[in-house]
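Page 42, continued from yesterday. The earlier attempt failed because a stray header line got pasted into the input along with the sequence. Redoing it now with the clean sequence only.
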Amino acid sequence: MAGTPIQTFNDFMNATGPTYITSADAVINEAVKNTYAFSRLLKEKTSEATVQGGNEIRDVIMFDDSSTYDHYLPNDTFNWRNAQTLDTIRVPWRFSIDHMAWTDHEVELNAGEGAGRDYVKSQYKRLKRAKEQRMWTSLINGFENDLWATTFGNYSNMESSGGRLPYSLPAFITEVPDAGNTLGLRGGKPIGWTNVMNIDVSTEDRWTNQISYYDPDMAYNAAKVEATGINNVGTGTNNYSATIFNLIAAFDDMFLKCDFQPPSTKQEYFEKPALNRQMILCSRLGLNQYKSALRSSNDTLVSYQDAAYNNPAYSGIELMYCSNLDTAAIFPGGTNRTTYNQDISESTTGATESAAVDEGARYFWVNGNYLTPIYHARRYFEKHDVLRHPNQPFTYVQVVDCWWNLFCNSRQRQGIVAPLDSSAS
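This time it went through. Structure tokens are written below.
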């Protein structure tokens, strides 16, 4: 290993190849070792589903069948139509960067004067692993934080081609109702937004997510409440009606809303109904609340000697605790609403679950088949050559950058179970 220790170490860092992760499948496998929600969105997905090229991310969606079905009598004449039903979704790339840094002093003092070749190699490997471990942890934590970034005040930052932030999950799953949706109670656009993924929600009723309400204070066997005159947190007006359930019944309601079954014939033209990538994401408050509901409902499917409900699930769908939801200010903020027909003002800032207009835990029903982080093939965790800082001659930096964005191709297969007080004023 000729040369000074710092030169040798820099060569060692450069010699690991131009790509930090050698293949698309490798990063997916590495990511799923984490228990973060972001890694769950990558689980069991191939590089074909998660890696693209080009100057933007694209997909084609059919929102309407523009029905050409009809009945006829013999000898009728027909008016043929070439229905145009496909919409192309275009999403810009977002650029993320992280780095490793080291100094002359770190390398020189670790090399050891007069040390043997094997000893120097082992020291370099140890230092390299420490640097990469810190950077990798920072990168994964950054992806997870991006997944739960607030939509309040970030419309142009997420939506425009000149923005910096990737889409976050609350951009696609919101508790803010879409006023006038012909399909019923649906979550529309985040407060302060006009479009979502450049699609106007007001013209595409299916480009919305499912909503079910529950009252956190309602007994777990209580009957539902039909509420009218509810004010929209997104406008402070537009009174609407909804059903408020107990927690378990709200899960029943949401399960049916998110379950899309194809017909028994021509299944090749319909989406597969598999829920193998369905998950329910919640905070610690939400997870503990669901466990309490199971206990109160006298669920005896556990050992009588064990009070814990580890890995709770609904219809085989796992409830996953996301620590970011404990502190994420992503819900409509304002004066707490204590009755469902209480007049409220439009929410303009984000708040945590405990400080939101409607206080209580939220449950995000996420179908990972239709929500995927997409990476660019040419900047897929690309590791660049070692740089020397011009103003710090003893410091060296190695950069890893990644081009990506969070892509949703079906919002109606996503949902949220949100709190709403069932009492009236």
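Notes: The chain is about 25% helix and 25% strand.
Reminder to self: strip header lines before submitting.
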